[in-house]
Specification:
The protein is α+β, with helices and mostly antiparallel strands and about 375 residues long. It has 2 domains: about 180 residues, NADH Oxidase (3-Layer(aba) Sandwich), CATH 3.40.109; about 160 residues, no CATH class. Helix 15 runs antiparallel to helix 16. The protein is built from 17 helices and 11 strands.
Length: about 375
């Protein structure tokens, strides 16, 4: 590899490579540190709004300075791939709803596009690397500076005319790419609209553009320990992620339903039912190995299947029926678990579904988590007629 700053191929060719390989849109921008973003991350972590979340909060100085990842970086290329699909009908039985961004391999498509750019730049004699959804860099900030979109009140990046159903990533390179169009950051497109704020099931959007991770269902589903008691009913049927603030967003509702990813004008594809919904009883019956194999694309705390079961048990308490023998059998098995996280979660769901007779299995349980669940107030679930 040359170190003389060789000439990179024209931007129009790089753009063609990226789009053909999987990106829906891309843009280049400068590589100066994101000082304003560093201040925001530091301030919000200091207020406790990050909760136990790490990612770019772990080391704001690093995740906002591209040169920490690639010394000598001159240019950042932001790439986006759409993951919008219309939801398929829910199958029968107690099921859990999965967030859109894991319905298909759209992140793989994003990475394919970014890696194609990276390889081309390296072939031209430049250094380059790819980051996406990592601690190294705040991809949303790069996309904003590159002019791909603006930050909505739910803190997501919205692309003009296309909405927020996009996964983002970045190519860092020491190439100048002088012929790449340099767009100005997009101005606020939300205006007076605040639909996302009251739509959040747990009021996690504490101010426009400010999320309290401790209240966010998406993060709570990925956190260790017991699922927060005050968020369980609000969790509803969500087993992984939460799309509520995006579902109500007007650009997402009005624009994207008219066109497929990339703006081709074709009908929006339908999500895969096998990836959009999870059968809860089947999930609870699986072994650790089976669960991790089926749902390994999800972020799972410490890669421990116990947290998949914990979430499934809580959702079962919201979606199951206390008169269903299969539901009762699943709760009975969970109450016999050697894992206190599972037992305590099952106590909540059994009480919520009116299956108090099953609690004999834990009436002498001395674990503090189980004892707390036995004494807590649990709102009963109203059976549908």
């Amino acid at each position: 590899m040359r170190d003389d700053g060789g000439v990179a191929r024209p931007w129009i060719e790089l753009e063609r490579l990226g789009l053909e390989a999987g990106l829906d849109v891309m843009a280049a921008t400068s590589a100066e540190p994101f000082k304003d973003v560093e201040e925001v991350l530091t301030d919000r972590a200091g207020q406790g709004l990050a909760g136990s979340m790490q990612f770019t909060y772990r080391n704001p100085a690093r995740s906002t300075d591209p040169s920490r990842t690639l010394p000598g970086v001159r240019t950042l290329i932001s790439g986006a791939a759409s993951y919008h699909r219309d939801p398929p009908p829910a199958p029968d039985g107690p099921v859990g709803r999965v967030a859109r961004y894991v319905w298909a391999n759209d992140h793989e498509r994003l990475m394919a596009g970014l890696n194609a750019l990276c390889s081309a730049l390296e072939e031209d004699g430049h250094r380059a690397c790819v980051v996406s959804d990592q601690n190294h860099l705040v991809d949303r900030a790069v996309a904003h500076r590159s002019g791909l979109g603006w930050f909505g009140k739910n803190s997501n990046l919205l692309l003009a005319g296309q909405g927020s159903w996009f996964v983002l990533g970045t190519v860092l390179t020491d190439a100048d790419l002088e012929d790449a169009p340099r767009k100005e950051p997009v101005g606020d497109g939300c205006g007076a609209c605040e639909r996302c704020i009251p739509a959040c099931p747990t009021n996690a959007i504490v101010a426009p553009g400010v999320i309290d991770a401790r209240r966010c269902l998406s993060w709570s589903l990925q956190s260790e320990g017991s699922f927060p008691m005050d968020q369980r009913v609000a969790l509803g049927d969500r087993i992984y992620g939460c799309d509520e603030c995006q579902d109500v967003c007007p650009p997402n509702r009005l624009e994207l339903r008219r066109s497929a990813p990339g703006g081709s004008g074709q009908p929006v594809p339908l999500g895969d039912p096998k990836r959009s919904w999870v059968q809860l009883l089947e999930m609870l019956a699986g072994t650790d190995e089976e669960l991790l194999e089926r749902h390994g694309r999800w972020y799972i705390p410490k890669r421990q299947a116990r947290y998949l079961r914990r979430n499934a048990i809580i959702v079962l308490g919201n979606t199951g029926s206390g008169s269903d023998n299969q539901v009762r059998a699943a709760l009975r098995e969970a109450l016999r678990s050697d894992d206190a996280v599972i037992r305590s979660s099952a106590v909540w769901s059994a009480r919520r579904l009116g299956c108090d007779d099953l609690l004999m299995a834990v009436e002498n349980d001395q674990d503090p988590m189980v004892q707390e669940e036995m004494s807590a107030e649990v709102p009963p679930k109203r059976e549908e007629r």
